[in-house]
Design goal:
357 residues; alpha/beta; Rossmann fold; six-stranded mixed beta sheet; six-stranded parallel beta sheet; 12 strands; 40% helix; globular; binds nicotinamide-adenine-dinucleotide; oxidoreductase; nucleotide-binding; Glu/Leu/Phe/Val/Trp_DH
């Protein structure tokens, strides 16, 4: 077990939670609260080992810090994992025990949905803690974040088109979408509405058949989607899809999608740039979800209008990252890191300015 402080990679706090009776085993990682409470989803997954779970949660929580910082939110970064199979191990008691674990952190960590957890689960967790977002609308939450993530990804793709083609319109363009789940399917709908040609791939054949029927999308095998001759390749399934094997097969000018951690390794950002492909840094373009659930913490209460307006500005944020990348001679992913780090340093510093209560 790599429980040494050096492996915490700058994290403020990492909490291991255990409730024997319900079988709860969770790790809550708070990477940074410099800009605000550490918000990030709960992933429930049957990890092979506790070490795998720890590595995953540390990586994911750090990513949330950067995502919220670059997006201009007053949120820090955190993430949590529950070790277990969501199909067989998830019970009311386990989720409520987990909710009590979150409550014990008194708002330093705020949770939301991620792989293996759903809005209905947030409702159950929320019976034990004030710090669960993204529950169903009927339960008082803001609901499925896939809607806003898809809108932000769509707006972001248009910003990329503006940069590469000097024209943000997607009419007559061609986008290859990998993964048409909660985000990818809605992204396809936005693009089709604007007259964009679509090619899609998913391991779920019902999902692709639906888009072929409704939107006239072409369907290709999952192992070929990145090699489609299209303007944009949009990863919306799993991470690490931009790697040494896929980059030589890309035929697109733009890689822009919602999947987290698309670059298998940081150096692939430079490899893409050298190949003349514009990369929309994943945590910048996929911030629609965190904008949505983070708004539940707003002092005036949740506002769907404010969320939509903020999500629609994702295009401007990407454009600013592209300008920074060009000015500093950096791949776009590194430029995004710089923008996030500069904001954390400049705005986070203000916390040291004492305000009497
Ligand atoms: N939902 C959000 O608000 C949100 C926010 C930020 C980032 N993301 C990221 O966006 C991605 C998609 O999220 P989602 O909420 O749509 O998840 P989802 O589980 O609803 O959809 C993922 C889809 O990808 C498909 N898939 C799995 N393996 C595949 C493969 N090898 N090839 C092609 N398709 C495959 C699945 O069948 C599914 O239809 C994930 O990487 C997620 O982490 C989601």
């Amino acid at each position: 077990m790599p429980g040494t402080f050096s492996q915490l990679n700058g994290h403020e706090q990492v909490v291991f939670g255990h409730d024997e009776a319900s079988g709860l085993r969770c790790i809550i990682a708070i990477h940074s609260t410099v800009l605000g409470p550490a918000l990030g989803g709960t992933r429930m997954y049957p990890y092979d080992s506790e070490e795998d779970a720890l590595v995953d949660v540390l990586r994911l929580s750090r990513g949330m810090t950067y995502k919220s910082a670059v997006t201009g939110l007053d949120l820090g970064g955190g993430k949590a994992v529950i070790i277990g199979d969501p199909a067989t191990d998830k019970t009311e008691a386990l989720l409520r025990a987990y909710g009590r674990m979150i409550e014990s952190l008194n708002g330093r960590y705020v949770t939301a949905c991620d792989v293996g957890t759903y809005s209905a689960d947030m409702g159950i967790i929320g019976r034990e803690t004030r710090w669960a977002t993204g529950s169903e609308v009927v339960e008082g939450g803001s609901g499925d974040s896939g809607v806003m993530t898809a809108l932000g990804t769509y707006v972001g793709i248009k910003a990329c088109a503006e940069r590469v083609f000097d024209d943000a319109s997607m009419a007559g363009r061609h986008v290859a979408i990998q993964g048409v789940g909660k985000v990818g399917r809605r992204l396809a709908e936005h693009l089709a509405e604007e007259g964009c040609k679509l090619t899609v791939a998913d391991v779920n054949e019902d999902a692709t058949a639906d888009l072929a029927d409704r939107l006239g999308a072409d369907v290709v095998a999952v192992e070929d989607i990145h090699a489609v001759d299209a303007d944009v390749f949009s990863p919306n399934a799993m991470g690490a899809v931009i790697n040494d094997a896929t980059i030589p097969r890309l035929q697109c000018r733009i890689v822009a999608g919602a999947a987290n951690n698309q670059l298998a390794d940081a150096r692939h950002g430079q490899v893409l740039a050298d190949a003349g492909v514009l990369y929309a840094p994943d945590y910048v373009i996929n911030a629609g979800g965190v904008i949505q659930v983070g708004d539940e913490l707003h002092p005036d209460g949740y506002s769907a209008d404010r969320v939509r307006a903020r999500v629609e500005r994702i295009g401007e944020r990407l454009a600013a990252v592209f300008v920074t990348a060009e000015r500093e001679g950096l791949p776009t992913a590194e430029a995004a890191d710089h923008v996030a780090e500069e904001r954390m340093a400049a705005v986070g510093r203000l916390r040291s300015f004492h305000l009497p209560r």
